[in-house]
Amino acid sequence: MGTVREATFDVLRRHGLTTIFANPGSTEVSLLTGLPDDLRFVLALHEGSVVGVATGFALGREAPALAVLHTTAGLGNAVGAIATARVNRAPLVILVGQQDRRHLALEPFLAGRLAGLAGDYPVRVDQPVRPQDVPGAVARACHEAVTGRGPALVVVPMDDWDAEWAEDVVAAPTRVVRPAVVADADLAPLVTLLSGARAPAIVSGAGADWGSLVTLAERLGCPVFQESFGGRAGFPQDHPQYAGVLPADRARLRAVLGAYDVVLAVGAPVFRQYPYVPGPLVAPGTTVVVITDDPSEAHRSAADLAYLASPAALCTRLSALLPAPGPPDAASVVEGSAPAIGADGARPSAR
């Protein structure tokens, strides 16, 4: 016989969530008092900083990170950082404190209406029905954060942690395997398109994988632009093929991409903009392809062809299928290359 708290700690250990980023309040005291020695506590002085540091930790190690927030005020202060984590595809598990379950119906002080407070930015918000459902909810949040590539919230009333745990079932798998296989037949249209391209270009975003994208860019010998307003670099900016940040209005976007007949957006939407300017995103004659594992990003992109798949797996296989490039002539180098551009879309006179 143990407690829900102890069972949840076992879940955290199993998923490598042994560093806890927090700015706790009274509704989290029962969770955090007397932590075991193998769990590391990191204090931040504002909830936005808590989620921001956890976001960097998750992106740096390419695995979920754990944050603990206070009830209404704490979660409310963190919403901006939660939105940023979602845009940057950071897998986070966020435990949010709640008042004692036994008198929630009376809406005591610090009772929070928490389910919708962060809007649509979490990939999942769970409010377990029983204290004994908390360990399973945390385990599921780990899986949801990885699959959805964003923050998964679990709201836990403060008395749940000390509840008895004598359950045989945790409502989540111990391990999730996510195979990413891209059939060559499905890639054939893209291979044909890129093989016949006169001047291809790549647009990278937060969902791109650096290693596979560098290989693909070098195989194509093409410039790589960063999506505008990308909070996370999708391509190494010291690489010689890095061409700068795309402009954020349609007129300048058409001008910059006008030299290219195929534009491949990898891990980025087609295309992130800010001021509204009428007209198409690209000039006539430019074919746009998007590769993303985010369904909403694929479904809203104004592309001629969309692949909903792992960018890393797809780019790796695509590089293997493309023919080796021949030596370019001087005209194609001039026509198919692009000097770096700044965030405002201006082109410098020299590199």
Structural class: alpha/beta
Superfamily at the CATH H level of the largest domain? Thiamin diphosphate (ThDP)-binding fold, Pyr/PP domains
- Ends distance: 67 Å
Using only CA atoms, what is the Rg?
23 Å
Order of helices and strands: EHEHEHEHEEHEEHEHEEHEEHEHH
Major sheet description: 6 strands, parallel
Strand content: 15-25%
Q: Can you count the beta strands?
A: 14
Q: How many structurally independent domains?
A: 2
pLDDT < 50 stretches: 330-351
Mean pLDDT: 89
Helix content range: 25-40%
Query: Largest beta sheet: what is the strand line-up?
Result: 3-2-4-5-7-6
Annotated CATH architecture of the largest domain: 3-Layer(aba) Sandwich
Task: Fill in the CATH topology of the largest domain.
Answer: Rossmann fold
Please give the CATH class of the largest domain: Alpha Beta
**Shape, per Cα inertia axes:** elongated
Helix run count: 11
Question: What assembly state would you assign to the polypeptide chains in this entry?
Answer: single chain
